[in-house]
Fold these 2 entries.
Entry 1:
Amino acid sequence: MDSTELFEMATKAAERSYSPYSRFRVGAALLCEDDSVVTAANVENRSYGLAICAERSALVSAIAQGKSKFKAIAISCPDAAYPVSPCGACRQFISEFVGPEFPVRFGGADGRIVDSTMGELLPHDALHELADRK
Ligand code: THU
């Protein structure tokens, strides 16, 4: 599974987005340690604040399937003319399960792809003393 293929899976997953309010489809493909891929899309609600992003949906789905270690994530926004990075809440959420070197690839509909890392997206990550109590 290379990063191009992972991004293609994210784009495909965006087709399953439920986003009648924003009309902004997002797909995520999460590469797990066992080389399986969990895909997900954003799911909105008429109570707008309840929307769940594709990234968080993918992580929750993977963990519910018993997968807890991850190699990379790709995020695709076919309705954006620019590469869309994970929102702040998703950065925090992803950081719970991965380290700073974790690759995060994202792109929109214009063909540009950004390859970043969790450490770049969430520098000065904090609250490790709480996570270490697990
Ligand atoms: N969204 C995601 O799913 N992931 C992102 O990285 C950006 C935002 C969703 C939330 C909402 O359903 C729609 O995109 C517009 O914000």
Entry 2:
Amino acid sequence: MTLRVGVIGTGMIGADHVTRLTTLVAGATVTAVFDVATERAHQVAATAGATAHTSWEAVVAADDVDAVVIASPGHLHPDQAIACIAAGKPVLCEKPLATSSAEALRVLQAEAAAGRRLVQLGFMRRYDAGYLDVKKAMADGVIGEPLLAHAIHRNATVPDFFRGEMSLTDSLVHEFDIFRWLFGAEIASVTVLPVKTSPLAANGMRDPQIAVLRMAGGEVVTVESFVNCQYGYDVRCEIVGSLGTVSLDNPRTTVVITAGHRSEGVPADWQERFEPAYTRELQTWVDGLAVGRVGGPSTWDGYAATAVAEAAVVSYAKGEPVDVVLADKPALYAGED
Ligand code: NAD
Ligand code: ISE
């Protein structure tokens, strides 16, 4: 049976998800979309043969929508995800789950009260071949006992709507999730260190920044965030263990060697770098729903990552370490990885 999907938000990633669901993912079709940018919504709907609705609530309620993708701005995700839960419709909600831990907790409580998982978070890095290899190497003991990690997350530039704290709440939220997943532990505290600001930092942002994460198991992760680095999209990490290290580099591209120079490409943006991961994420979601299963990054993961981002914003303001305090984990999420 074909999964009929409604998409809320047809901006950059929403439109990409419509294209993927329409052309790359098996077993799904897009039947409904909504965006406050009406013209854009109609254009995207036309590419998929979908109906452009007049509200996001109408997408959730539509009889020809079995499941929903939320790709609107982060502060709208809680109300939209809770409406999907209330309608009993599975939802793939783009990150972040919310822009505050209190809002994220509202979604968590709604899903826990429903008694079954309906929400998967769009932490697509968990579907990236490179991160999966790193996780396997750590689990297989190849590097001995993992002790610490270094990571970088650089964007060439940011969209106009990007402001102040979004490098922590919208970009580094990926690292907050991926290191919880790699180390299999919560983040206990976060410190954001001021760095000399780039003269090319957009919108008055403090950019770059360094975040230091202390995992509950004692491991430490340093993460550089640099969202106006100019030269391309660059996401890397190295896990240091008691016997060696395992690294995630940019995917291999063509190498050109001429006249004493060796050069290779850098991905332009997240679309290029993580395209296979987005498609695998959506295919896994669709395949799971075909057998009545919701898996992948959960509402708990979305809540925990949002709580770390919130603590990072406080640390950014205070210039000191801030503990991450989490609510009790509902039984619904016990034993999930
Ligand atoms: P965008 O601004 O390009 O798109 C957001 C869209 O939502 C816009 O078209 C806007 O008009 C629309 N919108 C605004 N209010 C709305 C409403 N009430 N209902 C429905 N739509 C509404 O931004 P984007 O980069 O596509 O980001 C969208 C979300 O996806 C964000 O939460 C972002 O963090 C996330 N995202 C995730 C990844 C990833 O790697 N997983 C990458 C990019 C964006
Ligand atoms: C964007 O929203 C994403 O999620 C990208 O993966 C990330 O690299 C970028 O910094 C965010 O703005």
